[in-house]
Design goal:
By secondary structure, the protein is of the alpha/beta class. The protein is 40% helix and 13% strand. A hairpin with a 2-residue loop joins strand 7 and strand 8. The longest helix has 24 residues.
Length: 434
């Protein structure tokens, strides 16, 4: 009769297929990467159509029209939502609101112009805009982001910039504008913002003027050198242009073809012959900035090394999770079964609580019963049984006395003595089995 083959207990098959688990992990990883990208791009749920003066606003003082016009003409148009954009290559378009900090703008311009990463276009504000109340939106059909225009007023922070000390901005009536081989009218001719005087050494060269000769847009340096070879602020490489009349380039101005063509001419001239140059609309000054793109940051030094290590560790864990060698073996039961395992568990508990002295008396009684059974002794009283064991051992010529060794076990005070005395009792049982 042949011996039965050993039985290996295995777990039942995993109810989740590997493909399903892989799909769940892939979707989770993609969602996490999308979250990082969304944080960097400013997809926070805030509506950019807030009536402000920036490239995401569809209101009259906004610049969404200029943004879309450039995009439709094939330009590389981007929204810069962090201060890191000040040091990026491209044409930086600044559209600060009416009540901006002159110190912040001055620091920004200094950082930008000293970096030499591209031209800068500063468009000044003039309008006071008010959101349309909800009750009037229903009556008039106004959409989100539409505003009421208040009276125009000069940007009160311009003359506090270092290069514009003592400059005089005025708001008044004009009959039209001319410049850059173009001419036309303005949407609000009675409220036109212009630079009337500019004392000091830093002189702006007019690009666009009104009928009265006041400057509506200007650049630092001679226009020929500015647009032919490039002329920068403080002898830099790239142009620095200031547009005093925002209606030349905002949504209000984009309704007229002549003004749209003028806006494109200013943009093209600022690029100094590089049509592939990106156009960066700043969103930090209008208050729509965001943190740096975490996804891009993760793949930039010095974080690139840590990112590569994490990706490698993830691949190793994924490979190990989807590959095994042989069938999975069932885990051992949490609680062992049977008398032997019960004894082992009890011994482990005694060892953990360090109550070894509690084992001495029960073990001596147990060995007394077993030795008495081997000698055929029927006494059940412990003392009488111990004396009978001693007499039986003496008749057989065996020297060890059971009573003495049992008392030695009961009187042992440390684990080492307890084990030695218990082993001496066990030796009596072994001698009887020979």
């Amino acid at each position: 009769m042949s011996a039965a083959a050993p039985v290996v207990q295995t777990r039942r098959r995993n109810p989740f297929r590997a493909g399903t688990v892989l799909a769940v992990l892939a979707i989770g990883a993609a969602a996490f990467l999308l979250m990082l990208y969304a944080i960097g791009q400013g997809w926070t749920g805030n509506d950019e159509r807030n009536g402000g003066e920036h490239a995401g606003s569809t209101a009259i003082p906004g610049f969404k029209g200029l943004h879309d016009l450039l995009e439709n003409q094939g330009y590389d148009v981007q929204l810069s939502r962090s201060e890191a954009g000040y040091d990026e290559y491209g044409l930086l378009v600044l559209t600060p609101p009416q009540f901006s900090s002159p110190d912040q703008i001055a620091d920004l311009l200094e950082q930008r112009l000293e970096s030499g990463m591209g031209p800068t276009l500063l468009i000044l504000p003039k309008w006071s805009a008010f959101a349309v109340p909800p009750q009037l939106q229903e009556q008039s059909g106004a959409q989100d982001g539409w505003v009421f225009l208040g009276d125009a007023s000069p940007a009160n922070w311009y003359d506090e910039l270092p290069f514009a000390e003592g400059a005089e901005l005025v708001v008044g009536r004009t009959g039209g504008w001319s410049g850059m081989e173009r001419r036309g009218s303005l949407p609000a001719p009675e409220q036109v913002q212009a630079l009337q005087s500019q004392p000091g050494e830093a002189k702006l060269t007019p690009l666009v003027t009104d009928r009265e000769g006041d400057m509506l847009a200007g650049a630092f340096g001679d226009p020929s050198s500015l647009f032919d070879t490039g002329y920068g602020y403080y002898d830099g490489q790239y142009p620095f242009i200031v547009v005093f009349e925002p209606d030349l380039m905002n949504n209000y101005g984009m309704e007229d073809r002549a003004r749209a063509e003028l806006a494109m001419a200013i943009i093209d001239s600022a690029m100094v012959g590089d049509p592939a140059m990106p156009v960066l609309f700043d969103m930090t000054l209008p208050g729509l900035g965001s943190s740096e793109n975490l996804l891009t940051l993760a793949f930039s030094p010095p974080f690139l090394a840590a990112t590569l290590c994490l990706l490698f560790a993830a691949l190793v864990i994924a490979w190990r999770g989807f590959n095994r060698f042989g069938a999975p073996v069932a885990e051992a039961p949490t609680r062992a079964q049977g008398k032997r395992e019960l004894a082992r568990n009890g011994a482990a508990l005694v060892a953990r609580v360090k109550r070894f002295h509690l084992l001495a008396d029960p073990y001596a009684a147990l060995m007394g019963k077993r030795i008495a059974a081997q000698l055929g002794i029927k006494d059940t009283h412990p003392e009488a049984r111990a004396k009978a064991i001693d007499r039986a051992l003496s008749r057989r010529g065996l020297e060890p006395a059971f009573t003495a060794r049992a008392n030695e076990l009961r009187n042992a005070g440390n684990p080492k003595d307890i084990i030695r005395a218990a082993s001496a009792l066990k030796d009596i049982e072994r001698m009887l089995k020979r």
